[in-house]
Amino acid sequence: MNIEEYKDVWVFIEQRDGQIIDVGLELLGAGRDLADKLEVNLCGVLLGHDVKDSASDLFSYGADKVYVIDDPILEKYRTETYMKAVGDLVRKYKPEIFLYGATSNGKDLASAVATEVMTGLTADTTLLDVNLEKRLFEASRPAFGGNIMATILCKKHRPQMATVRPKVMKKPEPEEGREGEIIEEKITLKEEDLRTKVLEIVRDAKKAVNLEEADVIVAAGKGIKDEKGFNMVKELAEVLNATVGASRDVVEAGLCGHDHQVGQTGLTVTPKIYFAIGISGAVQHVVGMQNSDMIIAINNDPEAAIFNAAHYGIVADAFQIVPMLTEEFRKALKGEEAGGVTANV
Amino acid sequence: MSEKFDVIVVGAGPAGTSCAYTAAKNGLKVLLIERGEYPGSKNVMGGILYRKQLEEIIPEFWKEAPIERPVVEQRFWFLDKESMITTSYKGLEWAKEPYNNFTVLRAKFDKWFADKAVEQGALLINETVATECIVEDGKVVGVRTDRPDGDVYADVVVLADGVNSLLAKQLGFHKEWKPNEVALTVMEVLKLPSKTINERFNVKDGQGVSVEIFGDATHGILGTGFLYTNKDSVNIGVGTTLSGMMKKKLKPYELLEHVKQHPMIQPYIEGSETQEYLAHLIPEGGFNSVPKLVGNGVIVTGDAAQFVNAIHREGSNMAMSSGKIAAETIVKAKETGDFSEKTLDSYRTEIYDSFIGKDLKKYKDAAHTFEENPQYFQEYVPLMNQAMNTFFTVDGTPKWEKQKKIIAKMTAGRGKIGLAKDMYKAWKAVK
Amino acid sequence: MNILVCIKQVPDTKIIKVNPKTNTLDRSSAPAILNPYDAHAVEEAVRLREIHGGKVIVLSMGPPQARNAIRKCVEIGADEGYLISDRRFAGADTLATSYALFKAIEKLQHEQGIDLVLCGKHAIDGDTGQVGPGIARRMEIPPLTNVIKVEEVDLEGGKLKVRRKIENGYELIQSSLPCLLTVEKEINEVAYSPLPNMLRAARYEPTVWTVDDLDDVDIKQLGLKGSPTIVGKMWPPEKSSGAEMIEGEAKEQVEKLLAITLEKRELFGVKGGEK
Ligand SMILES: Cc1cc2nc3c(=O)[nH]c(=O)nc-3n(C[C@H](O)[C@H](O)[C@H](O)COP(=O)(O)OP(=O)(O)OC[C@H]3O[C@@H](n4cnc5c(N)ncnc54)[C@H](O)[C@@H]3O)c2cc1C
Ligand SMILES: Cc1cc2nc3c(=O)[nH]c(=O)nc-3n(C[C@H](O)[C@H](O)[C@H](O)COP(=O)(O)OP(=O)(O)OC[C@H]3O[C@@H](n4cnc5c(N)ncnc54)[C@H](O)[C@@H]3O)c2cc1C
Ligand SMILES: Nc1ncnc2c1ncn2[C@@H]1O[C@H](COP(=O)(O)O)[C@@H](O)[C@H]1O
């Protein structure tokens, strides 16, 4: 492998039912920075059926080029078709860095492509940079079990690939009128040769919990101890019309479902206000909420790491202060409630 | 279709594992059943492991067992609210082989010990609860477990299931323990850097301290506290009889919190972080509470048999010896193929001939004496502290006047005769 | 139908605690466990075997202690277990791991035939989820990730149908056999093992293979040497300026917090994200 031949920063543009989803645009934002530093092009990779028209939208988000493969065979995501198509593109155009959203399909594809083209892949990254001196991509993620970030490098293989958590990178403001080049490619597979087939896609129209879009989240950590403590937090959430979030330890303790989990293996959220109650502030949790507009932490340990991530901190016993808060908010908000809305649990 | 073993041992604590180890080593087919995720995962002990009994099972065990620190100093603290009297013995000969005793963390130690039994050929299964003994024709022939297809058979079942021993109770060997026959102990493992431990306790690496605490630690209820040093943590705990706790309407953790906050203790544990919190019963009925020990095809060992010397906080050593004796009894019985109560009864006589029986007999009244005479803890420890204070405070009063005052204070409540009687009773109980 | 399940022994990350003040890991008390997702994979394999016959074979790469994780699988009902264990495997990233596992699978495939491969969705120590698809690519079989239900197995037709979890729902996918599934926890509940399984597991000795037991291995693709990714630096996450602390008695704290948050009182009017 001649590393020198590999140029450009690529972003996989994931679409669902023909609609480009946000994570690809967020990654164009992050990829733009990398490409500028390396003085190379930023390219999108868009696969699907009837998606060609969307390709030009990507220029306004920072792409210089977009590789498009538009084919009925690619209408729905399948590992075997996408892996082949993306693998061929990589072999032909040789990108230096390749980013994917860490969604179900993004992770699935990136893992398969990494093996297909025999290169390294860093999972679930939250911080991206380049070392210009060595011309190396530095993909960082919270490391195993700890309050530690680790930078993963891929020195001798190209492309250097990473999956990136949705919502961690900021979606750029579109720059109207920005132009670029569309490069169309073909796929050589035939439906008859394929081994998998998507028979049906069922989308839950109404998801029980929608943490990602909530404006206010009241999140419970292991400091709330048990069901009683959890109900106390739920009550505050109800009064504030907020959605209930949780740390992994709370989810593992069975106090609520996984769809409430915030963090590296849960959801990344960016509400206007995030209450962290009895949460220690382990990095795996913090990466999921650090971009909230206002973070308010309540913890009885003045040394808790959560106070580093928070904007406002209260050192107090949750069991004392949360009921007081609930009561005071209830008084203050009386008459303004939308009425009858209960917290999502 | 269920399998049959020579011996099934219920409970992989010190008693059960010693039994399984010895039996397997002698060629018996042994099944060791433990309900915890692994041996030790649920076990609680203040943390002093005595050398001799384990050495009789595994010579020079300290070379590989996960011990924390050999104990080189034994301290006794008699606490009042803001003072204490201490006595201690430190001997550096205890820092060398063959040592005297050790601090251990049961979660690590029990697992290691059970692995040793497995090495000898015992079969260990975890996360399985023995729910009852299977009895046929008046003989215990196996145990039922909580698992599907959960029956399993053996010539002899050894009950080493700890203080509650539901299985022995089902067999009618004992009744529910009375609240004054068991002590509730709560303890915490507190993380501290080993350097800090060395400094605070004045020891070097590889040297440990055990502290027994009397007086204000238990709010005057019968019982004691303890503080033991591990490598990079300390165990702190307090135990009192259930009856006392019920009388004073105290919750266990309140009691422990009280100990931790005590101004004499707090500096030793300052800045530490709680790693584990454990609560457990200790049988303290002593000699008079020992249940029926042997039946047809069944033997009771360890805490299940109330083999604990509450005064000296010895239990694991008695558990180990009883487990070993049980195994040896079964090995002998195997030669004749007779596992009736009559044959196995040699276990009982051997226990009574061993240090277990002798020590239990010796202290048989101790617990009751203290239970019935709470003044030892409620009054004498504070009084002794006050006496010392009066004696050592330099304020220009002649010493003989001080002595008079002390005696007056000490006898104020009960009179001289009462005091003398109490002292005699206490001495008799522990002599 | 012979089913091969890849399983990994991991430290129980629930128990591992980090000291936030010193940023050190406290691993001493964390026992090694079977990766929870893999337990579900084994359970699913056992259930499929009950219906379709065949064998459940588990395979793991790891240190000798990983035999305990394999025994755990035997408790759940696996028939056979293989451990590939060798210093030369050590330090593998996901690419090198999938290569080593693939080489062992190849051998098992050759010896006894494999119709289906199962993996966990991810291993809780690293959370990458990359090994499964990597193995599938090497075996040249389709990977179906995030499976929450096996709908149908048509052995004669050589195909199966599964539900695959995706954001906001699921998709129904059909694949030819053999293929590789990675499973989510929702797929089943791991049953409480019967006593005979426990006894069998306690006695069970997995077959242990070293690199030399595998055929045509390219040593350069193994372990640290075969891993394109390496860990550069590790550092504690940046301490931001830190929170503004709201001091005072509880009552005062509550008042101050209310004053701050009620500036945005419109947020509390209606629930966001509620469509
Ligand atoms: C691979 C991997 C992925 C992970 N992914 C995630 C993830 O997605 N999301 C996640 O959250 N975690 C995740 N974790 C776990 C993470 O490392 C932490 O273990 C977890 O976030 C801790 O949860 P916690 O803060 O609720 O509990 P703890 O760490 O137990 O903290 C409880 C806090 O409550 C405080 N407290 C206690 N009592 C009170 C009281 N009465 N009043 C007020 N405060 C009190 C304590 O001081 C403490 O700070 C992951 C771990 C690994 C290894
Ligand atoms: C706080 C505390 C401090 C102590 N300090 C000391 C000390 O410093 N030194 C000392 O020598 N002794 C001490 N002791 C006493 C000592 O811990 C016990 O005497 C000793 O552990 C008894 O051993 P055992 O094997 O009989 O019972 P245990 O150690 O209680 O073991 C019983 C085992 O059986 C298992 N089990 C129970 N029921 C079932 C079932 N139905 N099916 C399957 N498995 C079952 C349990 O999980 C457990 O592993 C202390 C005790 C306590 C509580
Ligand atoms: N060392 C290993 N041995 C066997 N299986 C593994 C190993 N590492 C990963 N796996 C399998 O791959 C899945 C995903 O792991 P990971 O990609 O590390 O998150 C796990 O759930 C296992 O099924």
TrEMBL record, chain A:
Task: State the family named in the UniProt similarity comment for this chain.
Answer: Belongs to the ETF alpha-subunit/FixB family.
Q: Which organism is it from?
A: Salipaludibacillus aurantiacus
Record: residues binding FAD:
247-248, 261-265, 278-285, 299
Cofactor(s) needed: FAD
Q: What is this protein called?
A: Electron transfer flavoprotein alpha subunit
Transmembrane stretches, by residue range?
A: none
Q: Does the keyword Flavoprotein belong to this entry?
A: yes
List the top taxonomic levels of the source: Bacteria, Bacillati, Bacillota, Bacilli, Bacillales
Give the GO molecular function terms. electron transfer activity; flavin adenine dinucleotide binding
Automatic annotation (TrEMBL), chain B:
- One GO MF term, please? oxidoreductase activity
| Domain of life per record | Bacteria
Query: In the UniProt record, does the keyword Transport occur?
Result: no
Q: Which InterPro entries match?
A: FAD/NAD-bd_sf, FixC-like, FixC-like_C
Tell me which cofactor or cofactors this protein depends on.
Answer: FAD
Q: Which UniProt keywords apply?
A: FAD, Flavoprotein, Oxidoreductase
Q: Which residues form the FixC-like C-terminal domain?
A: 367-430
Record bears the keyword ATP-binding:
no
Tell me the protein family, please: Belongs to the ETF-QO/FixC family.
Name of this protein: Electron transfer flavoprotein-quinone oxidoreductase
Species per Swiss-Prot/TrEMBL record: Salipaludibacillus aurantiacus
From TrEMBL, chain C:
Q: Name one GO molecular function term.
A: electron transfer activity
Note the Gene3D superfamilies from the entry.
HUPs (3.40.50.620)
Report domain Electron transfer flavoprotein alpha/beta-subunit N-terminal positions.
22-217
Against PANTHER family, the record matches this protein to: ELECTRON TRANSFER FLAVOPROTEIN BETA-SUBUNIT (PTHR21294), PROTEIN FIXA (PTHR21294:SF17)
* Name the UniProt record assigns to this protein: Electron transfer flavoprotein small subunit
List the top taxonomic levels of the source: Bacteria, Bacillati, Bacillota, Bacilli, Bacillales
